[in-house]
Design goal:
about 230 residues; mainly alpha; Tetracycline Repressor, domain 2; 10 helices; transcription; HTH tetR-type domain-containing protein
Length: about 230
């Protein structure tokens, strides 16, 4: 092996270790934020729970704000990969909206989702970088949902009603409320999320057999019913 190859191998191992450390710290921070909130988050406790020293944490994150912003970004990335991706794969806007409702309910079974809810409540009405980051994510999602609602209404798939922006706000409010109240209560969380948004959008109820197939579609492989 040449010197260049050895050097490249060392850099890859270092990058892998850094990625593992960062992932572990983000997961521990998300758990801490969901339990204690931002104001009461202790970085030393985060590092200990992740299995690292406080120095390792500060090597990757400048301070608590930097860590919380990283957690918010990480949650957005995972939500987009697990929920947004499913919606993007749908060819009809109504199916995309249903996919968001059911997918978000399933995503709320994870502790990281509770961290985002806790932060959003904590920073409501405050001008803080973490609060602004969350508001930007919510605004972006609301705009996407409004576009889907407008497209569905144009095609005649849903009846006329309030402006798409108002409908999108109501849609997200319903989806978030179901996710909070029924977090982890599978399969009722996904079933009731779809029923709620169907009523909001003016759609007919879904048949029980179709509803059961939808439950399997949103579950991760290790949670699929046997």
């Amino acid at each position: 092996m040449t010197t260049a190859e050895i050097s490249g191998s060392v850099r890859r191992r270092q990058a892998d270790r850094r990625a593992r450390t960062r992932s572990a710290l983000l997961e521990a921070a998300a758990r801490g934020l969901s339990t204690y909130g931002y104001a009461n988050l202790v970085l030393e406790r985060v590092a200990n729970e992740a299995g690292y020293t406080r120095g390792a944490l500060y090597h990757l994150f400048a301070n608590k704000e930097d860590l919380a912003l990283a957690v918010v970004g990480w949650i957005e990335e995972t939500w987009n990969a697990e929920v947004g991706r499913r919606a993007d794969q749908e060819t009809h806007p109504v199916d995309a909206l249903i996919a968001i409702a059911r997918g978000h309910a399933a995503y709320c079974r994870r502790e990281m989702a509770r961290a985002m809810v806790t932060l959003r409540v904590e920073f409501t009405g405050q001008d803080h970088p973490v609060g602004r980051a969350i508001a930007t994510i919510v605004d972006r999602l609301a705009a996407s949902c409004a576009a889907l609602i407008a497209a569905a209404r144009s095609s005649g798939a849903i009846p006329p009603g309030p402006p798409p922006a108002a409908m999108a706000s109501a849609f997200l409010g319903v989806v978030e409320a179901v996710g909070i109240e029924l977090a982890g209560q599978a399969p009722f969380d996904t079933q009731l999320a779809e029923r709620a948004v169907r009523g909001l959008l003016g759609l007919p109820p879904v048949a029980p057999a179709v509803e059961a197939r939808g439950d399997a579609a949103v579950l991760p492989p290790d949670e699929e019913p046997t």
